[in-house]
Design brief:
It contains four helices and three strands. It is mainly alpha-helical and 131 residues long.
């Protein structure tokens, strides 16, 4: 396979265009944040451990994942267990989460909040400790 010299390629139709649709993609790489701190890393690891517990307790009861209210778009975002785990792992390794496809036509009754998960797990622990 032979490389094509740059001067032979057609001109970029969006060169110097402030509305270049590809600009957002390159800005993602340019806007790399500082690496996550040791405290943030510990919090993410704790969240991943909690997520495993929540999934083990709630998935057998028909809960598909967690719903999060998005502060940017004011819409609920529905995350299946595996998607949320992958997002947290990506944040842990890359320091940020890449955009992803939203759940297709989710049934809101199949998802619960993080606080619900925490309360459910606390209730199970308290109940088991009582016996």
């Amino acid at each position: 396979m032979q490389a094509v010299p740059h001067e032979v390629l057609p001109p970029d139709p969006f060169a110097d265009d402030p509305n270049d649709p590809a600009r957002e993609i390159t800005e993602l790489d340019e806007d790399l944040d500082e690496p996550i701190s040791a405290e943030e890393r510990a919090e993410l690891l704790a969240d991943l451990a909690d997520l495993a517990v929540y999934q083990a307790l709630l998935a057998p009861r028909g809960v598909r994942g967690i719903v999060v209210d998005c502060g940017e778009c004011d819409e609920p975002h529905y995350h299946d267990w595996h998607l949320l785990r992958a997002s947290l792992e990506q944040l842990l390794s890359d320091g940020r989460m890449r955009p992803h496809e939203p759940a297709f036509d989710p049934n809101p009754g199949d998802y619960v909040s993080w606080d619900y998960c925490r309360g459910f797990a606390d209730g199970v622990t308290a109940h088991e400790s009582a016996y």
